[in-house]
Write a structure and sequence with these properties.
Blueprint (H helix, E strand, L loop, with lengths): L11 H8 L3 H11 L1 E5 L7 E8 L8 E8 L3 H48 L4 H15 L4 E8 L3 E7 L10 H16 L3 E3 L10 H9 L4 E9 L2 E10 L6 H26 L1 H17 L7
Antiparallel strand pairs: 1-2, 2-3, 4-5, 4-8, 6-7, 7-8
Helix pairs in contact: 3-4, 3-7, 4-7, 5-6
Amino acid sequence: RLLAWPDAGASVEAIRKTFGVGLENLADVAAMSGQAAGVADADSPGVRLLAVRLEMDDPAQRVAVVARIPFTGEGQRNEALRFLRLAADQARLYRENRTAKQAQSEANTYRQVLETVTSVCGQDRFVAACLTLCNELAHRFGCDQASVGFLQHEEYLRLQAISQSSRFDRRSGIVQELEGVMEEAMDQQEEVLWPVPQGMDLISRQHEQYAREHGLVQIVTVPIRHAGKIAAAVCCERSVGAFAESDIRQISLICELAIGRLLTLRDRDKWFLPRSVAGLRQQMSKLVGVEHTWA
């Protein structure tokens, strides 16, 4: 493949006409041996072609940069080769720097994921853990609101927490709307993003209706699986700016890592009230007699 600078859109024929018919052979030699030199063509004896190899991350990729220079002597040619090698080194350093930045970015991402999961798993009550999850998601991903709902008896979804809301009225319209939004994603067993990205075939009627009613720019719902089955869903909302793909991946990863702890807390708290009532009744029976305690 041939590319030219500064005219990146130049055709192959135009590049060959400028550099000569031996261009590709010269590039192949440089890619194999490290560098090469040659004459552009018989009509331009005072023009030389110099080529050096670009070191690539994939050894199977062979890339060379070729320069067309006026030839005035060996000293001038050697100086031109030195500059070409420097250019090749700059490309290598750029790739290495980009790789290092990507590694640092990934490390920061996983650190943030683990910090969020640690905050959630550090809670010892189910509702508190759900609220922490919502607050953390809203804070870290710039959401106007984040919410989580859990599947009940594998039949219906029930909203459990909304960010920055320690209490909410389950009979309110917004709660029912959010539950409908989450169920829409759970029924499809995949993430639902509105506006729906081009090329994706998703049902998003509930998402669109909710977003338009509440002035949102974007809304995404992520179903959460446990042991191969969908157990819950989180919904994240934004009125300004869109979610990046990396944001959605991180949200999904956080939820996948936290869901085990959340379900454990839910099952434990489910029996907390009955145990407390039984214990209270036992203590009262000792004080006033069994006949004066409730059955």
